[in-house]
Amino acid sequence: MRRYIAISSVFVFAACYHGPSIYKFRPVQEPYGVDADLRWQKTRVRGELLEVQDSALIVLTDSNKIVSVPVSVIEAGMFDKLGQLIGPGLNPARALAKLRPFSRYPTGLTPELRARLLGVYGQAEPQVIR
Q1: Which terminus of the chain has fewer CB atoms gathered within 10 Å of its CB, N or C?
Q2: Domain ranges within the chain, ordered by starting residue
Q3: CB proximity list for 95: less than 8 A, separation 6 or greater
Q4: What's the whole-number mean pLDDT along residues 82-108?
């Protein structure tokens, strides 16, 4: 009997899921990237994560500007429902791998798509924030 209870308990706990609910997580429900809040020194960038590059994040800010933020300058990177993935003691490569599927363009922006997207916001290139 004890063995049955122990095995049942294992299955019950394994069935429990902890993390963001797909029913309330915007990137899963609609074609948007996760909300990002990036901070370093006295600078803060908030907006939608568009693309994850090898060494930078492309973000559509709340003020409708497309910016490129080098990961190396970010001191604290918070992401909606995912928590802090960039910061002291956290592996940036692991953070980029985890973030990529939650960006609006998880496979990256083609040059044509990038040009069209920048054109919509009246930009020729993303503004590099340092």
Answers
A1: N
A2: 2-128
A3: 71, 77, 85, 86
A4: 94
